[in-house]
């Protein structure tokens, strides 16, 4: 499975890449820093799925999800640090297949975590 990571946080991109680095079934096909780049990469690389942040510059992840799902029908997993009922509803309305809360980076830095 080839995926694109769309997130403007270099730290979060690194965490996601690290999570998949030993998985022979998943390849990171590309990384986008904003929603428009995610659309452009998706058109060029035709990945099997996209992991999408919501808050990004140029175009947010919800708008990009709506376009990607409408034009390319690529599954999008919304992965955001702000997930509540309203955001989840908006993400599902945009076409997200799932909405997950990102881990708290401060907790990841805690040795007792």
Question: Helical amount among residues, as a percent range?
Answer: 40-55%
What topology, given as strand order, has the largest sheet?
A: 2-1-3-4-5
Radius of gyration over C-alpha positions, nearest whole angstrom: 14 Å
Q: What characteristic shape results from the CA principal axes?
A: globular
Largest sheet: 5 strands, parallel
**Low-confidence runs of at least 5 consecutive residues:** none
Indicate the mean pLDDT. 92
- DSSP summary, beta strand count: 5
How many separate helices?
5
The H/E string reads EHEHEHEHEH
Describe this protein's structure.
The chain has helices at 10-20, 35-45, 61-71, 85-94, 105-108; strands spanning 2-6, 27-32, 49-52, 76-80, 98-101. With 113 residues, it is an alpha/beta fold. It has a 5-stranded parallel sheet, sandwiched between helices. Strand 4 (76-80), helix 4 and strand 5 (98-101) form a beta-alpha-beta unit. Helix 2 (35-45) runs parallel beside helix 3 (61-71) and helix 3 runs parallel beside helix 4 (85-94). The longest helix has 11 residues, at 10-20. It is globular and about 40 Å long. The relative contact order is 0.17.
